[in-house]
Amino acid sequence: MTRGRIGARALRDQLGDWRGDAPAYESLSDRVRLLLLDGRISSGIRLPAERELAEALGLSRTTVAAAYRSLREAGFASSLQGSGTTTQLPHSRPGAPAVGGTLIGFTHASLPATKLLSTVLDDELLDDYRGHFDTIGYDGVGQPGLRQAIADWYGRRGVPTDPEQIVVTTGSQNAIALAAKALVSRGDRVWAESPSYPNAYDALRDAGARLITTPVTVEDGWDMAALEAAFQRSAPTAAYVIPDFQNPTGRSMSVRDRERFLEAAAGAGTVVIADEVTSEMDIDRHAVLPSLGALADAHGAEVVLIGSASKQIWGGLRIGWLRATPQLARRIAAERGSTDLAVPVFEQLVVERLLPRSAEIVEERREQLRAGREAARAAIAELLPDWAFPARLEGGLAAWVNLGAPVSSQLALAAHARGLLVAAGPRFGVDGAFERNLRIPIAADPEDLRRGLEVIAELWPAVNRFARPDFESYAGTVA
Ligand SMILES: Cc1ncc(COP(=O)(O)O)c(C=O)c1O
């Protein structure tokens, strides 16, 4: 089934710097395969005609034809007479012997359930659940008890909240998608950080957004001058930001930058979608920074806060939420008719019981993340000395590592063949950038981190070879 097409120029941008040591057709087909595996292009998309792609990439048509043939042979594309070549994912992914017998996934930055979860699964919870059986069970904004617990949780974080302002969602991913649908119309400009959480980019694009981005880096945080200029120039309809332990850089916005950000948004009439899903993942920042929700009124900005039980309590509950003005909350909730209608009752009752204990849970998470951070830092220093682990990483769920060479996609492909699933750096950007970066989840189990990084270290010399074509050393001398 064809679900759309990708043009030759769009594919060229996604491909980035795709050439390697192998013959051009093979490197090209490898890169398209990676784009598919990590979701940068979808399955069911029609690829550009051979001639068009050949022209866009400065290749012969025979080379592109050979690349498409190789994709078909590997099960990553199919073609029907007269309808071009369409991407697909093979039914069983080929050639992935697992690391020590199991697949290791570095693609998700998330922790297993808190120890406290099993303590609330008691008779009292079941009685409460049974008490809901004489209702229809659908509640488009969430269970009253959980909305109150979330409002109280905001209150403790310095953001006084009425339960009317809360909409409970199916994970915060659903909250981002609903907010995007309510706020963004097709063709609207929406600002986001680069790099950022890729599923948010996707949700914004699905709502019709044209993304404009400005940088955030491990070293310097947000480029506020570029951000202010972009807001002034483009007056984006909405802005998606992760102010604390930003995914993937781990950076937190200073108080002054938060104020400048809100001033820029207010000045441009931009509604801020502030993703606070990682905001409690503090290892040793030792500073309580105000939520954008606490500062919004003073700066005349409208802010939708996004939150989740996934990182604190457990992702398997699929409970998230958003906080907005009562009016906007109702408007956003009205969007869910075409998606999920409501959220399961049982999981809401679980979260209602655990949110009041979030301080205890945060302590547990702090120690897990500290252990992951130190395991990753030590393994990289020992096994991958070419890489730069962030000098400052005070929290969050991942480390945005600099590989020192533009080979992230190449490395992801090689790792995949060994049963280690990693998301290549460009997955976190909008235009094929970040080939020099890899996101390592410090939320992973320390032993898995070590084993995964050992696999990468074995692959590294061969992968890194691709990075040493002479153009890199000449790059500085080209006028
Ligand atoms: C920054 C950020 N926002 C949102 C989410 C979505 O999480 P969930 O839908 O489980 O709440 C994630 C998950 O990794 C995330 O890292």
Bound molecules: pyridoxal-5'-phosphate
Tally of contiguous helical segments? 17
Can you give the mean pLDDT? Answer: 92
| Helical content band | 40-55%
The CATH topology assignment of the largest domain is Aspartate Aminotransferase, domain 2
Structural class: alpha/beta
State the end-to-end CA separation: 47 Å
Any idea what the shape is?
Answer: globular
Written overview of the protein:
The chain has 479 residues and is an alpha/beta fold. It folds into three domains: 80 residues, Arc Repressor Mutant, subunit A; 126 residues, Aspartate Aminotransferase, domain 1, CATH 3.90.1150; 234 residues, Aspartate Aminotransferase, domain 2. An eight-stranded mixed β-sheet has the order 4-11-10-9-8-5-6-7, sandwiched between helices. The protein has a two-stranded antiparallel sheet with strand order 1-2. α9 runs parallel beside α10. The longest helix has 26 residues. The C terminus is likely disordered. The structure holds pyridoxal-5'-phosphate. InterPro entries: Aminotransferase_I/II_large, HTH_trans_reg/aminotransferase, PyrdxlP-dep_Trfase, PyrdxlP-dep_Trfase_major, Tscrpt_reg_HTH_GntR, WH-like_DNA-bd_sf, WH_DNA-bd_sf. In the C-terminal section; belongs to the class-I pyridoxal-phosphate-dependent aminotransferase family. This is PLP-dependent aminotransferase family protein.
